[in-house]
Amino acid sequence: MVTVTKHFPFAVEVNVIARDAFVAVQSGGYYVIIDMQGVVLALSNNADAPYSIRGFKVISAKVGNPLVSEDIRLIERAVQIVYLFQTYTSYAPDVMLKDGQIIQQMSDEIWINFGWAEKLEVQFPSAIAAYENMIEKSGSSGIVNVSNPNQCIVEPLKR
After folding, report:
1. For residue 11, which of 7, 83, 102, 104 is within the disulfide window of CB 3.0 to 4.6 Å?
2. What is the pTM of this model?
């Protein structure tokens, strides 16, 4: 992002802030490319970012401004989940909003339900431990439900 300020009579100040695409928010038939802070970098027909999230409704997306959505808190938390997955695990983030809950699809057979992801510092490690336990028991399928941060429940997968 570039800002230019004139200082009269003879000076011009140019500030350049480099922003990197982090997540493509799929909304309808297009993607809104945002950085880690939720600033809109581009609108695209393609997911032109390292990661994408889907299921969110974008109200306004103007390049250089924060993303506007009725789900903005959930989008912020989904971006945090993507960050946690790419930083602390080797698992690929595949985050979506489904029935008002933030879901990470680990495979066709195993999903993690973070709910509103209000206590990710508790939910994330609990979910990863439960997921890895399910993997050890090959053939497992289900939903690791950590929507209540105080408990971790493995439920049957409902499609």
Report:
1. 7
2. 0.85
pLDDT per residue, tens digit, the chain (159 aa), is 678 888 888 888 888 878 899 999 999 889 999 999 999 999 999 999 999 999 999 999 999 999 999 989 999 999 999 999 999 999 989 999 999 999 999 988 899 999 999 999 999 999 999 999 988 876 678 999 999 999 999 998 876
User: What are the boundaries of each domain within the chain?
Assistant: 1-69, 71-159
Task: Output the DSSP codes for 54-91.
Answer: ESPPEEE--TTSB-EETTHHHHHHHHHHHHHHHHH-SS
Q: Taking CA 116 as the corner, what is the angle to CA 106 and CA 85, rounded to the nearest 5 degrees?
A: 35
Tokens 């960050």 correspond to what residue? Answer: 83
Strands 101-105 and 40-44: unpaired
Full DSSP string of the chain:
-EEEEEETTTEEEEEE------EEEEETTEEEEE-TT-BEEEEESS--SSEEEESPPEEE--TTSB-EETTHHHHHHHHHHHHHHHHH-SSPP-EEEETTEEEEE-SSSEEEEEET-TTHHHHHHHHHHHHHHHHHSTT--EEEE-SSTT--EEE----
